[in-house]
Amino acid sequence: MTDPYQPKYKWRRTKIDDNDVPTDSDWLGYDGEDIVGRIQLQPHGPMKDQWLWSGHGPYQLKRHTPHQGYEAEGREAMRKVEEYYDSLLVANRLAFSRK
What are the backbone dihedrals phi and psi of residue 6, each rounded to the nearest 5 degrees, phi first? Predict the structure, then answer.
């Protein structure tokens, strides 16, 4: 059995505003102040109990796909977001300037 993925960026429960109560089914990933992406556990429908991942990043000229998808495990959804974000940094030559 393999160990679960260990995220390299900081992940926090999503809080939209002061009235919002964060839950364990909605997370945002951060690289400093930049949002790297979001994962959400789907509560209903054909993708119920799957984690939707959406990759984000700072304003960049070169974007690519897929930038979102589904995973069975939350940690794997985090991996997908982080891999997407890292690939954006490389594609836009920001990976080395940010270190």
Answer: -105, 110
Both tokens assigned to 22 = 């964060």
Contact 47, 70 (CB under 8 A): yes
Return the structure tokens found at 62: 């070169």
Task: Convert the pLDDT of each residue in 76-94 to its tens digit.
Answer: 999 999 999 999 888 887 6
DSSP string covering 47-59? TTTPEEEEE--SS
Q: How far apart are CA 57 and CA 20, in angstroms?
A: 24
- The residue behind tokens 């960026």 is 9
Instruction: Supply the Cα-derived Rg of the chain in whole angstroms.
Output: 14
Domain boundaries, the chain: 10-91
| Among 2, 70, 10, CA closest to 39 | 70
For the chain, the average pLDDT equals 89
Distance CA(18)–CA(65), nearest Å, equals 33
